């Protein structure tokens, strides 16, 4: 289980996270949605132990990220936004390096690399230079890296951004497969993806959680008003408008 | 920790050879030393005296430029590029300590610096082959000089890595490191010139790197106190690099 309680983060005077709390249960795929600048990446970076928090608590599989960051990172696979990779390396070489960094050596590393090359459908580009890959392949190499040690928790930051429809569909299928046995937080602002891939959704706006729960429940809750949203996107827009109206009031 | 240090070292060391910058650095190094050898030192100009030739080769203006400039060129991208390209996210969300990352990068930077300096052995072999009859290359002195060079470059490599932890911009990191190296280089020398107090002169001559080379390494003396001084400087700079990268990696 991933548990976030009262998480706060400021950049100078700007408040990035204003005491957010949420929980993602074991085996759940949660969509973490919000507008650009809502605080998704900041929350995910704190979750993965990359960035310190100002206040609050984050636990991954019962391990406090603030107290035992290395222990929590051993349980996590992370795909950062924009999929930063080393462009000069070959795909297999990159994955071998990452396996070594994550503590796998020798036959275990070779086995793990072969497994993720197959499961992410990138064996055909294993000898290619990362910098020469298409964006879709780069995303899949990034996901392969996140899956190397077969972590029980995955944190994926905007994995579908910039992909063409065919690449999005492939990635969606991949996420469905890997999500069957893992706890995943998947950040995006493409709500159609969340509807297809996720069990639950967490909506963040201006550093605050404005809604969370199962997707049909959120749609139904938003539909309880005068308008009648039929999709998650319409529910999301309604939620954001409500939050902005409350801020103005 | 050592396993991840090894993998960081291995990736960064190999990465030098993917980049044209490494080959440009090595070519520039060889070219400058070739010029020095040809126009300044050549066996004829040194009068066949190996001592004079070695003192010229390891004491000329270009030698010091290279001592000061090679480490910043080698280290400037090591941490700055990780932050600029976003791979710091990838690196620091793996279960690795910041100290392992910094030490791995330091080992890669130092080994590459040592490799660049080893190119000078080509010039020395050339010089040895062309010495007049009766003269012989003093390889013991060469070894002492190399001990000094590698000790000092170990220090400057750590300073360069610290500078690389400060900025996302490689050029800024290189300029910061070069400036710091120049301050370290000049601090003993200038104070020695302007100070009358004997104890101050003693102190400043102890920290003056130019004195270390002229007085000791270049005449074949390896003073371990100087190597310990460089090691201490390197340890302080590495500690500062770990702290700086940890504090600034996400900014």
Task: Tell me what you see in this structure.
The complex is a heterodimer of chains A (249) and B (251). Chain A is of the alpha/beta class and 249 residues long. Chain A has one domain: 3-Layer(aba) Sandwich (Rossmann fold). Helices cover 41% and strands 25% of the residues of chain A. Chain A starts with a strand and ends with a helix. Chain B is built from 13 helices and no strands. The chains are: A alpha/beta (249), B mainly alpha (251). Chains A and B meet through helix 2 and helix 3 of A and helix 1 and helix 6 of B.
Name the CATH class of chain A. Answer: Alpha Beta
How do the SSEs of chain A run, as a string of H and E? Answer: EEEHEEHEHHHEHEHEEHH
User: Helical residue percent of chain A?
Assistant: 40-55%
Q: Percent helix among the residues of chain B?
A: over 70%
Query: What's the average pLDDT of chain A?
Result: 88
What distance lies between the first and last C-alpha atoms of chain B, to the nearest angstrom? 25 Å
Overall structural class of chain B, as computed from helix and strand content, comes to mainly alpha
- Given as residue ranges, the uncertain stretches of chain B (5+ residues, pLDDT < 50) are none
Question: Largest beta sheet of chain B, briefly?
Answer: none
Count of DSSP helices of chain B?
13
Number of strands of chain A: 10
Whole-angstrom Rg of chain A: 18 Å
Stretches with pLDDT under 50, minimum 5 residues of chain A:
none
- The H-and-E topology of chain B, N to C, reads as HHHHHHHHHHHHH
Strand content of chain A: 15-25%
Question: How would you write the strand order of the largest sheet of chain A?
Answer: 6-7-8-3-9-10
Gross geometry of chain A: globular
3D shape of chain B: globular
Strand content of chain B: under 5%
What's the β-strand tally of chain B? 0
